[in-house]
Specification:
- By secondary structure, the chain is mostly helical.
- The chain folds into 2 domains: 66 residues, Winged helix-like DNA-binding domain superfamily/Winged helix DNA-binding domain (Arc Repressor Mutant, subunit A); 146 residues, Four Helix Bundle (Hemerythrin (Met), subunit A) (Up-down Bundle).
- It has 10 helices and 2 strands, in the order αααββααααααα.
- The longest helix has 30 residues.
- It is globular and about 55 Å long.
């Protein structure tokens, strides 16, 4: 014979499962949204980032926003300044030059590895992503350009199949996020950039490692030249120093 217990089962709370206290992946989603804002120029170098405004923009809790800020700070996109809080990182002219120099070397080698290791399906997917980038430029759809560019680099990384290089390039691209796309707003740069990407695509389809490596390296070097011109132009417009990639004027 069973007797009913007068004791009630202990109730589980959010303390028992701390991850359930907020929506799964909220900080990752917030980081992606803020990162996209930096890339698109919505948040400019030197601009202060208000937690309250970021909560409104991302639609997540302040806790998730703070975690996202920490993630982006570790990537070098955000700098947390004492007594001021988080700001979009300002890169100096030398830092920009150094980053592009390193990226040019790695992108060239990555393209060479892609030619060597990628499947025919990956080669076709890379070509399709290049066409999508061009379509985004034609339609003046910067979000489309960013999304297609992300696909391009994802495919390139997968086909190159070198985790160390891919991780290094991911870090570099994140740090250079603003300049990666603001340089294409320079008159004529979008067209030249597309011509360079098409050269990479043709070399890849021809399975020419040297040509692909050279085209990829030149593409990054020319983007770097544009980034440095943007810094100089901003300095002239604001009367500031050329040593820093300045913020909102």
């Amino acid at each position: 014979m069973k007797y009913a217990s007068n004791q009630t089962e202990p109730q589980e709370t959010a303390l028992d499962h701390p991850d359930s206290a907020r929506e799964p992946g909220a900080s990752e989603l917030a980081a992606a949204r803020i990162r996209q804002g930096i890339v698109a120029g919505e948040f400019r170098p030197g601009e202060h980032l208000s937690e309250r405004e970021l909560c409104e923009v991302t639609g997540v809790s302040r806790t998730a926003v703070r975690e996202a800020i920490q993630t982006l700070a570790s990537e070098g996109l955000i700098t947390v300044v004492r007594y001021r809080g988080p700001i979009v990182t300002q890169l100096t002219e030398k830092e920009v030059r150094d980053l592009y120099d390193m990226r040019a070397v790695l992108e060239g080698h990555c393209a060479s590895l892609f030619v060597q290791r990628a499947s025919d399906e990956q080669v076709a997917a890379l070509d399709a992503s290049i066409q999508d980038i061009g379509r985004g430029h034609e339609e003046r759809n910067m979000v489309g350009v960013i999304e297609a560019s992300s696909r391009y680099y994802d495919i390139l990384a997968e086909g190159a199949d070198n985790g160390a290089i891919n991780k290094a390039l991911e870090t570099l691209r994140n740090r250079m996020a603003l300049f990666r796309f603001s340089s294409t707003r320079w008159p004529g740069r979008a067209e030249r950039s597309m011509a360079e990407l098409c050269e990479i695509g043709e070399a890849v389809k021809a399975r020419d490692q040297d040509a692909a490596a050279t085209a990829a390296r030149i593409h990054v070097e020319r983007a770097g030249e544009m980034a440095l011109l943007i810094i100089a132009e901003h300095a002239r417009a604001t009367g500031g120093s050329r040593g820093s990639a300045g913020g909102r004027s």
